[in-house]
Each structure stands twice: as C-alpha cells, then as structure tokens.
Amino acid sequence: MQSFQFQCPTEILFGRGAEEKVAEKLRERGASRIFIVYGGGSVIRSGLLARIECILTSAGLAFRVLGGVQPNPHLSLVREGIREALSFHADFILAIGGGSVIDSAKAIAHGTANPGTDVWDFWTGRAHLTKSMPIGSILTLAAAGSETSDSAVLTNEDTHKKVGLNSPFNRPALAFMNPELTFTVPHRQLVCGISDILMHTMERYFTSVKESNEFTDLVAEALLRNVIAQSKIAVADPTNYDAMSEIMWCGSVSHSNFTELGRGKDFSCHKLGHELSGAFDVTHGASLTSLWGAWADYVCPDDPARFAKFAERVWEIRSGSAEEKAHAGIQKTVDYFRSLGMPVCFSELGIGVLSDDAIAALADSCTAGGTKTIGSFHPIDRAAAIAIYQKANH
C-alpha cells in the first residue's frame, strides 16, 4: 500500500427521513441564519423546499432562499448568492439538490467568507483559499458526490470556461442523504449521474502508480460492479429504494477520495470534458462518456496490464492476451454507457462533428495553449488532446 493522507470530516445522515434532522444538526453547530441554495422547480413541486422551510421555522432558525442553479453551475448566480448571503448575514449555507447546487453552495460559502476577493479568483489560482463558511447538503440526486468531496466546479459564462477547484474547504460539514428524494429524478439525470459515479472511480483507477494498492483497487472494482448491477434495477424502477440507496452511497464514497488512497487521481477525461461543457453547455456526465472510449483507446498502450485487470475484475473477461482483454474491457464499458442511452461520441453528445479549428481550440484551452499537460496515466499535451478529441469526433 502506497502512502496517502485522507480526511473526510463530513457528518453523514443516511436513510429514510434523514433530512428531517436538518434543524437539529444545524443548531448543534451553532447555525442560526441559513442561506438555502437550490436549482430548478423540482424541489418546489415535490414539496421538499416547503418542508425544509417548515422544519427550520419550527426550530426558530432564520433562512433566505436562492434558486436557479443550472447544470455546469454559473459564476453569475454564485456572485448573486454571495451578495445575498452577505446582506442576510448568513452563518451556514445549505444546498438542496445535486452536484451543481452543492458546488454553487461551496462557491457562495467561499465568497461570503472572503468578501474582499472575487470568488472566480479562487478557481483561476489568482487567489488562495484560506477560509470559508460551513455548508451542508440535502441530496436529491446520486451523481457528483459533491456532498463528501473536496472539489467543486464553476463555469464562467462570459469566457465559456469551466474550472475545478480542489480544497479541504470544499468538504461539507453535513450531508443529509435520503434515497427516497431521488425517486422523482428524470431518467436523463439518473443515467448521467450513474455515469458520473463510474467516471469518478475510473479516473482514480487508471493512474500512473504502478505499485500495489490492492485494497484500494478492490474497493474501486467492487464499487464499479455494484453501480453497474444496481443501475439495471434503478433504470427499470427508479423508486426501488435498495438500488437507489446503493447508488447514492457509492456516489459519495467514490468522490470522497476513498477510492484513490495510495493511487491518486488522473481526471484527464474530466478536464477534457470541462472544455466541452464550457463551450457547448453539455451535461457533465454526458461529456465524460462521449470521451472515455477515445481516451482509453489512446492511453491503453501505456499500461495494457492495468486495463486487462480492469476487464477481468469488473467485466469478468478471462480469455485472451493482456492487450486483447484490455480492449475488450474498454469496449464493454463503452457498450454499457450506450446501453444507458449515454453518448459515446460527439455526434451522440449533440454537438455534431467538429471542425479541425474547433478541436484545436478545445485542446488549446485545455492545455493553456500547449504550455501544460493534464493527467498522470498518460500526461496529455496539446497534440494528445487533439488526438483524443478527434477519436471522439464522429
């Protein structure tokens, strides 16, 4: 087992009715003025927002709400949220929703705690984050794992740039996880979420570390197999509590960094995919599945044994050489994404076949004009980024 450092301070309340303890837990932490962030109208139509407001009111907790979070969370709404949270004198930020809502809450917390700094500067590296506010989440979508992660993404609509930030200050203080709250999620969001969970795990499974991390590998492989198996049940019946609870918990474990201990993370596909989301405003999970097969084909020659192990342990592919098993495992993964109705190339993503100039622009943005590389399994430079985008460009 290789060296690692791990801390996940999030207090998790999991199971039916978990969200009903929100006031109790907020009061335990000394919170009294709660700034609530949510997305579209689903939390209103389901009655969840009104129920949370009633719980907070009954406990004597003041609150203010801000809705309108979009997929690929927008900087403009975060800035609005910071202004409102400051005027309200908020002392706790509460997200009700999925990953985009939670990421927005994280950004609002950072900006509110640092009113003299433009929040975007934390994402671009022009400022260093040294303090924030406590946040919590009432999860309504099993996908991004932001409820336990140290990461958050933000999109600047003016520059069409989507950027991730990793910081211990991104770790939520509280996560209320009731699988029943996912029952009304639209099919498209469900399968995108399932794909995101798998991608978070695979981006940690395929890294440059060659030495043994057997337990970490076993955890990752079991998580992948479980999500694949449970997804078949959940897609057929999204109100199946057992299947949705398994998927929800796997999402949290996957992005808590537990599946990378001793191995680290690569996240090349995420960074390549962020360029697609920033440029075309496509769904995060869909951007990843449209690229993964192209990325895997391109980098597989660096370590076919690793891909063969993945094929054997996740897809039970036993016959053939290491190279044959590796490519069979890649194809099985692509076929699985397609079986969910997820895109596995750019035309299926809905952005069409891109011109060479458009591909070059994506690669330039991803690699800062060729001045940096991304990832570790196979460091992706500008030429490699172009090659991978071209492999997916059909």
TrEMBL record:
GO terms for molecular function: alcohol dehydrogenase (NADP+) activity; butanol dehydrogenase (NAD+) activity; metal ion binding; methylglyoxal reductase (NADPH) (acetol producing) activity. Pfam families: ADH_Fe_C, Fe-ADH. This is Iron-containing alcohol dehydrogenase. Residues 9-179 form the Alcohol dehydrogenase iron-type/glycerol dehydrogenase GldA domain. The keyword Oxidoreductase applies. InterPro entries: ADH_Fe/GldA (IPR001670), ADH_Fe_C (IPR056798), BDH-like (IPR044731). It comes from the Bacteria. Residues 196-392 form the Fe-containing alcohol dehydrogenase-like C-terminal domain. Keywords: Oxidoreductase. GO terms for cellular component: cytosol.
